[in-house]
Q: What sequence folds into this?
């Protein structure tokens, strides 16, 4: 596993009860692990070790198998997403126009790596391959807002808006 900054797990008893109910309803069905994990991610927003352990304890599926599924399929994430989700396009058009430097600058300012969430839970940072706005390259998105024709100097001012 990559060395990611860990945000403390903040699951509630209500979330756990909802997950246990879903596990109970699904666990005896063939091929139930994926639907259980999908439901868990819907409930918590991600699949931290604590949630994987609940699934393991209540299904009998070994942690190693759950972790393997969680890391194999891109639909699952082991880390929380921030209140504001930042995605930087690293597709060809954006990359040749400097999106790699934009991504690096965001990591510096936010003090997190790709796939991580700031400790206060405000921002998460990911790279993507294309947002379909090649004419605006380089592009990043914060939540649903597209920012194009970016320079490294634009980043701090944009983040201040959030």
A:
């Amino acid at each position: 596993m990559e060395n990611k900054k860990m945000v403390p797990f903040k699951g509630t008893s209500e979330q756990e009860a909802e997950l246990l109910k879903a596990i109970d309803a699904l666990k005896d069905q063939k091929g139930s692990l994926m639907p259980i994990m999908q439901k868990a991610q819907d409930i918590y927003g991600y699949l931290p070790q604590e949630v994987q352990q609940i699934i393991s304890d209540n299904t009998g599926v070994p942690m190693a198998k759950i972790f393997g599924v969680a890391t194999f399929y891109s639909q699952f994430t082991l880390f929380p997403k921030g209140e504001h989700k930042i995605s930087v396009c690293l597709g060809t058009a954006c990359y040749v126009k400097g999106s790699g430097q934009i991504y690096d600058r965001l990591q510096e300012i936010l003090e997190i790596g790709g796939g991580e969430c700031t400790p206060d839970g405000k921002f998460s940072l990911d790279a993507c391959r294309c947002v379909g706005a090649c004419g605006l390259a380089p592009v990043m998105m914060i939540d649903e807002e597209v920012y194009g024709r970016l320079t490294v100097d634009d980043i701090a001012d944009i983040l201040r808006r959030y």
In short: The CA atoms of residues 136 and 148 lie 5 Å apart.
